[in-house]
Amino acid sequence: MKRRVHVLIMTILMIVLATGTAFADNREDTEDTEEYLVGFKNEAAVQAFSNNVTTSAVEVQHEYENLPVIVSELSTEVAQLLENDPSVEFIEKNERVYLDPLVMNNIQETDIPKLEERMKRGDGVKIAVLDTGIASHDDLHVIDGVSFVSVEPFYRDLNGHGTHVAGTIAAQENDEASTGIAPNVELYAVKVLNGLGAGSIASITNGVDWAISNDMDIINMSLGTNTDSEALQRAVERAHDHGILIIAAAGNSGEADKQHTIDYPARYDSVVAIGAVDGNNERASFSSYGEQLEIMAPGVEIHSTFLFNRYERLSGTSMASPHVTGAAALIKSNNPELTNEQIRKRLNTTATPIGNPFYYGHGLLNVDAALD
């Protein structure tokens, strides 16, 4: 390990020597830089890099708490130098992530499980909703939140997507509107996408890292990208190893003429990939498919909470994922001894088969069977 750190410091020296002249006078005269995620072999290498870089060619923007990864503004030349360093396991551009456009339709209620009075409704289960934030709403009780969007340093939702997702999970019981699957959960708003529904691999990885540090039980990610990321994969694997159940939307590319259309992070083995069905329990035309697909849930014309204390009806695998998250919370609250993998197995084995697993996974979410 000492040798690796020594080699890394030599790389840092090369960076300083290679860029020192160019950066000596004015940063405005330098070549363009981009954001990168740099993964090191261990924490010692991260510290060696952060503590020894003194050139303006490198700007360390963020260090993750639970991963030996940094986010840094780098020139192409510096990125190439780091890529060849034995202390660096990977380096990748911080690609942008965008929500699919919201699909709005006429309001239609969604069935919720008929729970026995003795059953808990998500009590004591901590859920992190990684999304556009959560807006203030009479039917939502948010315990706390955090933002990883620099231009929106608050967890309040300016888009509506995250608020809608949160309502499907945990809208409060009343006679006025629809009730969430698990209304008694501890709901946390983790903003990783801005008001336009845009974010990055780094911001999503930030959200996962935060969930680990704050001992969440479940992460819901109604988002995705077709870009594979080593940093994001390692983050969700670390969260899974920490005991967190990670549930993500499979994606809305089902109409594409491809063999596999499931987005990341849903495609990773440590994540439960959720597809969407319509009111006839047929796969929604937009719902992505592939070998990683696990469970289907309602995702067409879903009625839930929205901005300005309103309700809207939206469609997408983003709307299906929180149904499964809510169901998982019910299982956890009534069986607190179960691990994340045991809950995952119960969801899969109790799902109702409705078609080819390539297009329907294990089948349709069956909350009643999962709770038996």
From TrEMBL:
* Entry-linked InterPro entries: Peptidase_S8/S53_dom, Peptidase_S8/S53_dom_sf, Peptidase_S8_Asp-AS, Peptidase_S8_His-AS, Peptidase_S8_Ser-AS, Peptidase_S8_subtilisin-like, Peptidase_S8_subtilisin-rel, S8pro/Inhibitor_I9_sf
Cross-referenced Pfam families, in alphabetical order? Answer: Peptidase_S8
Please list the cofactors this protein needs: Ca(2+)
Gene3D superfamilies xrefs: Peptidase S8 propeptide/proteinase inhibitor I9, Peptidase S8/S53 domain
Per the UniProt entry, the signal peptide is 1-24
Which protein family is it in?
Belongs to the peptidase S8 family.
Record-annotated Peptidase S8/S53 domain positions:
122-363
Q: Which UniProt keywords apply?
A: Calcium, Hydrolase, Metal-binding, Protease, Secreted, Serine protease, Signal
What is this protein called in UniProt? Alkaline protease
Q: Name one GO cellular component term.
A: extracellular region
SUPFAM superfamilies with a match to the protein in the record: Protease propeptides/inhibitors, Subtilisin-like
Predominant location of this chain? Answer: secreted
Q: Report the GO molecular function annotations.
A: metal ion binding; serine-type endopeptidase activity
Q: Any idea where this protein resides?
A: Secreted
GO BP annotations of the record are:
proteolysis
